[in-house]
Specification:
172 residues, mainly alpha, 6 helices, 69% helix, globular
Length: 172
């Protein structure tokens, strides 16, 4: 779980970028890739967490970054294909979430921890731990994460981003 350990994900990303530029077509095959990759992601994440997730010390975890990179690569290519069928509002919302994604990434673990410690759980029944986890994630953690991430982006990230210089000079 280091930058070196994630190098395969970087290389997978480069490969799908090259594939996208040279061979990609929005077609039924790539539409199906979206559905298959989405199903694979759900199963893989479920099994990963069932086996201890990030906290496990199993040797099989060494393959997780490669599996993760591959499944998200398939998802991205599939999404790029089905994007022609998606209502315009969805990409607009995803772009807005992308702007605050760094804050979301940094804050969501903290908010999960706070939610559990403060018992801000959406209890859907005494024997339904998984349902309670989903409901709490959707109705408590997600809205809190988005709201706080918008605030941290506006008041912390954005002011610092305005201080950036020019990365490259215009070609004359």
């Amino acid at each position: 779980m280091t930058i070196v350990g994630r190098l395969d994900q970087f290389l997978i990303g480069i490969c799908i970028g090259v594939y996208y530029l040279k061979r990609f077509k929005k077609d039924v095959l790539h539409d199906c890739l979206f559905i298959v990759s989405l199903a694979f992601i759900c199963v893989a994440l479920y099994l990963f967490n069932l086996n201890g997730g990030l906290l496990t010390d199993q040797y099989s975890k060494v393959w997780w970054p490669t599996i993760e990179g591959g499944m998200w690569a398939g998802f991205i290519l599939g999404y790029l294909s089905i994007s022609r069928w998606v209502p315009k509002i969805l990409p607009a919302v995803l772009i807005k979430l992308g702007v605050i994604s760094y804050s979301l990434y940094l804050l969501h673990f903290v908010l999960v921890d706070i939610t559990i410690k403060q018992a801000w759980l959406v209890d859907v029944g005494p024997d339904n731990i998984l349902g309670t986890a989903y409901a709490t994630s959707i109705f408590v953690i997600l809205p809190l994460s988005i709201l706080i991430s918008i605030l941290t982006y506006l008041f912390i990230e954005k002011p610092f981003l305005k201080l950036r210089g020019v990365y490259r000079q215009p070609i004359k």
